[in-house]
Amino acid sequence: MENKFRHLDARGKGELDYDLKQDILFFKVKDREYVKSIELDNIVIDIDSEQFITGIQIFEASKFLRIDKAFLTKMPTWEFNATIKDNKVELRLTFTVVARNKIIEKISPIIIEKVEDSLPNSEMLLSVAK
Predict the structure, then answer these.
(1) Residue 2: pLDDT above 50?
(2) How buried is residue 126: exposed, middle or buried, by Cβ count under 10 Å (0-12/13-18/19+)?
(3) DSSP code, position 4
(4) Which residue segment(s) compose the domain that 20 sits in?
C-alpha cells in the first residue's frame, strides 16, 4: 500500500449534470475517462486508469442532500473533494444553490466508506464557479 498521498487538482475543470426526472446528480473531472466504478449504496464512484476518483453519481440526490429538486438545477458554484486513505473513501460536497433569488451555501453529509478495491492513497479536488 502506498503511504504517500497523490493529488489531483481539477479546480475549474469540473462538469456537473443533474437529471431532474431521475433525481441523479453527477460530478466529473473534464478530460479524464473512468475505467471502473465502485457502488456504495446510492452513490457510484468513477475511478480512472491512474486510480484517482474522477467522478461521482448520487442517486436520489434531493433526498440524500435534503434539498428540493428544483434547486439542484441551479448550482452556480460547487466543490467536490475525495480522499482515499487506507482503502477508506471520504467524499465531501459543498455547493451553492439559488433559492428565491438568494444564494444559499449547503454542505453535504460527509460519506466515509471502506472499499474492497485496493486503491492507492490519493486526494482529488474538483470545483467550479460560474
Answers:
(1) no
(2) buried
(3) S
(4) 6-129
Burial of 95 (0-12, 13-18, 19+ CB in 10 A): buried
Q: Is residue 68 included in any domain, yes or no?
A: yes
What residues contact 95, with CB distance under 8 A and at least 6 apart?
A: 75, 77, 78, 79, 105, 106, 108
Domain assignment of residue 43, yes or no: yes
Residue 120 lies in a domain: yes
Q: Which percentage of the chain shows pLDDT scores above 90? A: 25
Cell digits of residue 116: 474492497
Domain count of the fold of the chain: 1
Calpha distance 127→62 (Å, rounded): 20
**pTM of the full structure:** 0.82
pLDDT in tens, 98-126: 777 777 777 665 777 788 777 888 888 88
